[in-house]
């Protein structure tokens, strides 16, 4: 089988290299002609993977028609902001090819997922999305990794498994396109939050709390827009969330860390030099959650810090003081009774604080 990988970033390069190592006919398309010449000469992606040699069988091209014409599957690994344009550009060359999105994000201002854009621009193609805890450098280092290919087409799922499955890279299959795609997009929000928390040198308790509450938010949002809640317990959900929130290799984590150090958002993005999808995803999900009435306090707090000039510390303290809730609320909607309970208990605390303690219990809190 033959495969084209569109996008010369770290992940697109890593996936193309994996397919070539598996003996597939694989072509990596890169926009810049000079970069393609450098790749042919050195077989190193100097900008994104400077310490890794690419497989000798991997082909390179800067010509879209040459890259995609006649292949079996096209993998698209460009930023979400360029995804629609890329599909429009390859449309004249589409005959029988299937399309798989490797992009984790949402289109700015439309809230469209990449699968939505594929169906709009190329309604006739078989398509899928791939997502999981997949840090490109670790994949290139042959560290055991797994991912999920989601598609309604079983032949496409098997084709992707054929291309990428190896001794170090396991490809699982799913039919829940929306859930797999949302997991990959939403986790970027919380990676920014975790990066900020790390900059404040928080403890493991705080990190565990943030990770758990993030998963609750992701699942609530996913269920509200039609995803299978169980998908968020898999690789594309909690798996990707954990990897992105715990690794300095994560672009969104690094953005959050710089923000926590007091660096402005604009400067942090410039310093990163790569796309951090979570910055845009916060805007999209904040707006959509408000419109749908989905309880997502961490997302709203990040929006307040990034786009409303609110103090990160003040917002964090407010989050800690907000309401009493059930611990396990994986897909539960926000229950207004929690707000009422919080108010009632606050009144009890105020009354207790104003009351004079009895002599016999003044000296100890032990029974």
From TrEMBL:
Residues that, per the record, bind NAD(+): 7-12, 136, 251
Q: What class of enzyme is it?
A: oxidoreductase
Residues that hold NADPH according to the record: 10-11, 31, 48, 104, 136, 251, 277
Q: Which family does it belong to?
A: Belongs to the NAD-dependent glycerol-3-phosphate dehydrogenase family.
Q: Could you tell me where this protein is found in the cell?
A: Cytoplasm
What pathway is it annotated to? Answer: Membrane lipid metabolism; glycerophospholipid metabolism
Q: Which UniProt keywords apply?
A: Cytoplasm, Lipid biosynthesis, Lipid metabolism, NAD, NADP, Nucleotide-binding, Oxidoreductase, Phospholipid biosynthesis, Phospholipid metabolism
Instruction: Output the superkingdom of the source species.
Output: Bacteria
Enzyme Commission code(s) on record:
1.1.1.94
**Gene Ontology biological-process entries:** carbohydrate metabolic process; glycerol-3-phosphate biosynthetic process; glycerol-3-phosphate catabolic process; glycerophospholipid biosynthetic process
Q: What's this protein's function?
A: Catalyzes the reduction of the glycolytic intermediate dihydroxyacetone phosphate (DHAP) to sn-glycerol 3-phosphate (G3P), the key precursor for phospholipid synthesis.
Q: What is its main location?
A: cytoplasm
Which Gene Ontology cellular component terms are annotated?
A: cytosol
Residues bound to substrate: 104, 251-252
What the entry lists under SUPFAM superfamilies is as follows: 6-phosphogluconate dehydrogenase C-terminal domain-like, NAD(P)-binding Rossmann-fold domains
Residues covered by the Glycerol-3-phosphate dehydrogenase NAD-dependent C-terminal domain? 176-312
InterPro entries in UniProt: 6-PGluconate_DH-like_C_sf, 6PGD_dom2, G3P_DH_NAD-dep, G3P_DH_NAD-dep_C, G3P_DH_NAD-dep_N, NAD(P)-bd_dom_sf
Q: Which part of the chain is the Glycerol-3-phosphate dehydrogenase NAD-dependent N-terminal domain?
A: 4-154
Key word NAD present:
yes
Q: What's the protein name?
A: Glycerol-3-phosphate dehydrogenase [NAD(P)+]
Which Gene3D superfamilies does the protein's record reference?
N-(1-d-carboxylethyl)-l-norvaline Dehydrogenase, domain 2, NAD(P)-binding Rossmann-like Domain
Respond yes or no to whether keyword Secreted is given for this record. no
Provide the active-site residues from the annotation.
187 (proton acceptor)
């Amino acid at each position: 089988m033959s495969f084209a990988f569109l996008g010369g970033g770290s992940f697109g390069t890593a996936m193309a290299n994996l397919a070539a190592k598996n003996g597939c006919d694989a072509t990596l398309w890169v926009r810049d002609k000079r970069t393609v010449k450098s790749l042919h000469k050195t077989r190193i992606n100097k900008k994104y993977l400077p310490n890794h040699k690419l497989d000798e069988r991997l082909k390179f091209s800067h010509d879209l028609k040459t890259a995609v014409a006649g292949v079996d599957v096209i993998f698209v690994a460009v930023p979400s902001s360029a995804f629609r344009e890329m599909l429009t550009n390859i449309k004249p060359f589409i005959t029988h090819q299937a399309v798989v999105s490797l992009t984790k994000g949402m289109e700015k201002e439309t809230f469209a997922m990449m699968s939505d854009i594929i169906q709009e621009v190329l309604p006739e193609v078989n398509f899928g999305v791939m997502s999981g805890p997949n840090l490109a450098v670790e994949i290139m280092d042959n560290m055991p990794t797994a991912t999920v290919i989601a598609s309604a087409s079983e032949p496409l799922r098997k084709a992707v498994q054929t291309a990428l499955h190896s001794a170090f890279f396991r490809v699982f299959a799913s039919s829940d396109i929306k859930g797999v795609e949302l997991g990959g997009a939403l986790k970027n929000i919380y990676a920014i939050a975790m990066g900020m928390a790390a900059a404040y040198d928080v403890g493991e308790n705080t990190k565990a709390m943030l990770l758990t509450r993030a998963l609750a938010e992701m699942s609530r949002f996913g269920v509200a827009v039609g995803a299978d809640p169980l998908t968020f317990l898999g690789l594309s959900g909690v798996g990707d969330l954990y990897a992105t929130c715990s690794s300095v290799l994560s672009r969104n984590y690094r953005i959050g860390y710089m923000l926590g150090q007091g660096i402005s958002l604009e400067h942090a993005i410039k310093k990163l030099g790569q796309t951090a999808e979570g910055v845009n995803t916060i805007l999209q999900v904040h707006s959509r959650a408000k419109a749908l009435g989905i309880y997502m306090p961490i997302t709203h707090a990040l929006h307040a810090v990034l786009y409303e000039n609110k103090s990160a510390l003040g917002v964090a303290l407010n989050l800690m003081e907000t309401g009493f809730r059930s611990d396990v609320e994986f897909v539960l909607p926000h229950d207004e009774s929690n707000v009422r309970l919080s108010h009632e208990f606050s009144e009890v605390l105020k009354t207790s604080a104003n009351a004079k303690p009895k002599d016999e219990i003044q000296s100890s809190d032990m029974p």
